[in-house]
Amino acid sequence: MSMQKKPQMVEAVVFFNDRGVCREMLYPEFEALLDNVVQMPEYADQQMQLAYVLINPRLLVKAVVFFYLDFDEKGEADRGWNLPLRNLADRAGRGPDMGAGPIRLACRSQCPVSWHQMHLWDPTLEASQNHLVQLRESIKRNNLGVLVEEEPAAVELARLQMADEHQWYAPAEESREEAEKLARAMLEEHQQKTAELLGQHETRLSQISQQHEQELGRLKLGAQEQVKVLQAELAALREGLKREEEINAGLRRELDGQANGFQRGREELTAQLRHIEQSGRDELEQLRQQIEDESRTRLASLEARYKEQISVRDVELGYRNELDQQLQQENQQLRKEAEQLREETAQLRQLATQLQQGAEGLRLELDTLSAKAADGSVLERLAGMGVIFVVYHPGAGHLTLSLQDVARYQENPMAYAAAKCFVAEDQYRSWLAHYQQPACEGRLSNGERCAMPIDRVETPGRFVEGDSNCCSRHKTAGRLRSVTTG
Q1: From CA 57, how far away is CA 7, in angstroms rounded?
Q2: What ranges do the domains of the chain cover?
Q3: How far is Cα 115 from Cα 113, in angstroms, rounded to an integer?
Q4: Tell me: the pLDDT tens digits for 405-419?
Q5: DSSP 8-state assignment for residue 84
Q6: Structure pTM?
Q7: Among 52, 269, 278, 330, which residue's Cβ finds the most Cβ atoms within 10 Å?
Q8: Cα 100 vs. chain centroid, distance in angstroms?
Q9: Burial 136-147 (b: 16+ CB within 10 A, else e)
Q10: DSSP code of 155?
């Protein structure tokens, strides 16, 4: 006798766009997306609105958490995303009735954990676009294939019989036939849903294969263009080498001509010596010896000078070839780094401007309140009227200040924010500088700062001085120095 799976509560994640619900998936699929086992290129470089939904066996919503999720340019989910959806759903406040009593609702305006508020969004409740209604209708359609709890069919009165034990029952044969019909219907429905899921997976695999082929084509085209550029540069280098070889050949010909000239001069001097020999052998011997010494000295000096010129030309030619290769590599690297720096600088400037404006406005308001009420009477009256003091710090989010914490916050805002992030003040300041400008803090051999763009660490607790704010090269150099020192 086979056991049927009992319906139970199901966790799912729903994606929203401008038209409403655009994608649904079970929570294990969502975890695979967070682990980057699968990617979603259609959401590349976007911030999507998602909803975590808890569904009962009657396809009714019991809890909802509306949150954001960022995707990078490859369609991979943000690796730093760590929102506790189940915890938020368990601690959420009461929401509207969606068929199974008031739901548990967590959103930006109703967040049980204040530091997660900035990662949530509020659903629209207008008649033209009601996110809760869209969510309820989407779950009712059961595109996820949730196992539904069916209500037992009522037995007709004519088929009921009174047993000796005074219990109602239906004839065993007819109950068996109905059970078999119900089993066949459930089997057919399961087979149909399985076929639909297989079709969806095949379509998805086809799309991924087509995208990979397009990307491969683009890479091949880029490689061909790069090969053409390198071939042109190689032809130019060969032409330069050919010109240098021609110059060297000319210098060798000139040297040979001068050597021949010296040889002819030597022969002429020898003839003169023979002629002078007739008038006096002693004088001739002295003159010949002097001339030969001068000739040898001149020839040796000329040969050494021209050999030195040739070796200098050869060294210059080799150095020029190496310099051309280094300049070509450095030029390509600098182009990539310049493009990344332009994009990241624009984003950082915009973020820094917003943070600076918010921080200056908040400090002005706190300074004004502090100046007007040195004895704290104004702040106490404001607190008595229900005013809540809220500040924002990167990494800590929006912080609610009690009346007792206002003075401590005014004395050292950075220390207060660092304490809320459970890190030291120095670590928080170092992380904030890295967060505002994620660039390498390492030093080059000439003493200048490396400043190579690096990945930003989103939370102060995960920031490690000398590691998180350094590129891979300076991280390795820092470890080697630490090992050598130890």
Answers
A1: 5
A2: 1-149, 224-311, 341-485
A3: 6
A4: 788 888 888 888 888
A5: -
A6: 0.34
A7: 52
A8: 41
A9: bebbeeebbebe
A10: P
